[in-house]
Amino acid sequence: MPKWDVDTSLNIAPSSSFNSGSSTTHTAEVTLTNRNSMGFRMLIGRTTMKGHYLVDPGQSYLLRKTRKQT
Q1: How many domains would you assign to the chain?
Q2: Is residue 41 part of a domain?
Q3: CA torsion through residues 8, 46, 66, 15, sign
């Protein structure tokens, strides 16, 4: 099965816990794949986050979970 990669813009909204500024936009290479059976619909990799975000792998769900849209 072929693997499709596309360049796209990711608009990441600020969290009220960390800043109240405007959202930021980053360009990222996204691989198109069916993730229906996986826990997360999209993963943002370290290349996209490098120089922009610091991730603490020991923490999870620091912000409240949002309701799933139908």
Answers
A1: 1
A2: yes
A3: negative
Per-residue pLDDT 10s for the chain (70 aa) are: 677 889 999 887 776 555 566 778 888 888 888 888 888 888 888 888 888 778 888 888 776 666 666 6
In a domain, 9, yes or no: yes
Report residue 49: phi and psi, to 5°. -85, -20
Nearest to 68 by CA among 34, 30, 41: 41
* Entry pTM: 0.52
> Across-strand partners of 11?
25
The identity of residue 17, as a single letter, is: S
Q: Which domain holds residue 32?
A: 4-49
